[in-house]
Amino acid sequence: MPRMANPELPVPDGLVLRPFRGVRFAVDDLAEVTSPPYDLIAENDVRGLLDAHPNNVVRLILPGADRHRYAEAREILRSWLSSGVLIVDETPAVYIYEQTGEGVLQRGIIGDVGLAAPEQRVILPHEDVMPGPVADRLALMRTTEANLEPIFLLYEGRGGAATRLVDRVAATRPPLTEAETQDGLRHRLWAVTDPAELAELGGDLRARSALIADGHHRYATYRALQAERRATRPPTRATRSPEEDALDPWDFGLALLVDVDAYPPELKAIHRVVPGLALDEAVARARGAWQVHEHPDLAKGLTALEETTGPAFLLSDGDSAHLLTDPDPCQLEHAMPADRSARWRALNTSVLAEFLLPKVWGMRDDEQRVRIVHHDPEAAVRLARECGGTAVLLNPLKVDDVLAVAAQGERVPRKSTSFGPKPRTGLILRLLTEQP
Fold first, then answer.
1. SS3 per-residue string spanning 281-303
2. Helix (H, G, I), strand (E, B) or coil at 113
3. What is the pLDDT of residues 86-122, one digit of tens each?
4. Beta 151-155 vs 252-259: how paired, if at all?
5. Residues 187 and 77 in one domain
6. Position 214 in a domain
7. Rounded CA gap, 416 and 109, in Å?
8. Full-prediction pTM beyond 0.85?
């Protein structure tokens, strides 16, 4: 992932990952106090997490709808710290994190990542953000003065020193903590505090850049907090070096870094549901621009979808399935933005957002008109049936395509990717204030 310099911005050498004093739960069953990332928790799942344990982290990351919810999260955090439910590690560390399960092995490094603007080409976003989620996370982080869950970054490590350290630690040392969650994944965490190992790690990462796999809104929040802090903190003293000034905790954010070469991530599809658009109407409108292939059931339709090579979408309401393939090239060319790269224009989510939804069905792919369902096509079909609409099922994008688009400075359409396995929330937290 090449980096490009902007002469108006201070350009870091590369990724900066520094140790921090991790905040961890001191409970008997660690799995019971963890949760998925905040934006993957359905409303009906919150109660189950709350019932799982009185100290489940969901009380911090999704503190409710009351206007005082952010202050309540702050008070809960302080209470857990003072009572010993949460403990702060004495020695700053970077943390090796491993997730294992059936067909799953992912290892990475959790630490304080130095923040950089997108123009600096060090930490590359691949999706745009929405103001609502950023405002929500900003209010939560500002009030609690904490990073409550890490963002997920991918970098091309090419088997370098950082990856060798990760594997060596995981293979030879007892973990600091471990837990097995209900999804069948086992999570293990190690602390690395040795100065020589930290220097080895930092030297290798300085040559890298990273892609935001998950956490665009939280990363935007990190940078908003940093901007607020810089606007209010005193100017650098004459006796203070730039390195010392850069130690402000608001210049960093909690992140998991995974070497995409050593541990290729899963990339799953995010499906759409269009409420109120009947399947018959959706198919009839599509026939003028797509080849339509009918399948007797969802399973056969999904198999056919997986076998396609170009842009394709499976439409279903649970009773039947219709596969759209081979869009009319003239109509497609006219619909796709000319100022985007060929690779961007070929993404199925780009074709969905620029052609199928607006040109064929006369609507935009936005939060008001189109619902989102992560991963599960059957769940999307159930939702379509409930709301009298049509499920639009997609193949996942390819990792190489996402990396290439991001390296060119482009953003894929909203909700195009779901990288995994995502870090489990609650295993490690970070305080922005002076730590006890």
1. HHHHHHCCCCEEEEECCHHHHHH
2. strand
3. 999 999 999 999 999 999 999 999 999 999 998 888 9
4. parallel
5. yes
6. yes
7. 25
8. yes
